[in-house]
Design brief:
Layout lengths: L9 E5 L5 E6 H11 L2 E6 L6 E5 L1 H18 L5 E6 L5 H16 L3 E7 L8 H13 L5 E10 L2 E8 L2
Length: 164
């Protein structure tokens, strides 16, 4: 809220240099801001009494936008990458998949390892569990298990995340 939009009876006023001018009526504060050729901006509406500052509103908005942009730049989104295995996977294929998962983990992404059972393979879930254990052994130097292997329909799923 700026200038005439501020309808509070009393506000705490801070001038453009950061010095407190004290508590006064919103109208009086607005006139002080107008005399200085600046705007009266409410910066802390939940305080008792609300805090207003005499500043250039355009410059204030620009600074706020810049701070938000800088904060967004520092954020890192964590993606979940999926690696699919089968219970009868060969050793070399497992190594290739583990290397791919290693790339994902070093970039900071989580990895969802899903092992799909087809047909009669469902009778040998212990084989699938061993494959997932072998897969994790190849990555345990850089990763930790986020969610243990668990059956979901016809597939066994495990989540791995980078170790801190």
């Amino acid at each position: 809220m700026i200038n005439e939009q501020i309808r509070d009876k009393e506000v705490r006023v801070i001038d453009s240099n950061g010095e407190q001018l004290g508590i006064m009526s919103a109208k009086e504060a607005y006139f002080k801001a107008k005399d200085a050729g600046l705007d009266l901006v409410k910066i802390a509406p939940n305080a008792k009494p609300p805090v207003c500052k005499i500043i250039n509103y355009g410059k204030y908005r620009y600074e706020q936008a810049r701070k938000e942009k800088e904060a967004r730049k520092k954020q890192r989104t964590i993606d979940v990458k999926e690696i699919r295995l089968s219970p009868n996977i060969d050793v070399n294929d497992l190594n290739t998949k583990a290397n791919q998962a290693r790339k994902f983990l070093t970039k900071g992404d989580k990895v969802k390892v899903s092992l799909r059972f087809r047909g009669r393979e469902m009778a040998h879930k212990n084989v699938g569990r061993e494959v997932l254990d072998n897969f994790f052994e190849k990555l345990e130097d850089i990763a930790v298990i986020d969610k243990d292997p668990k059956m979901e329909g016809r597939s066994m799923v495990m989540f791995i995340m980078p170790a801190k």
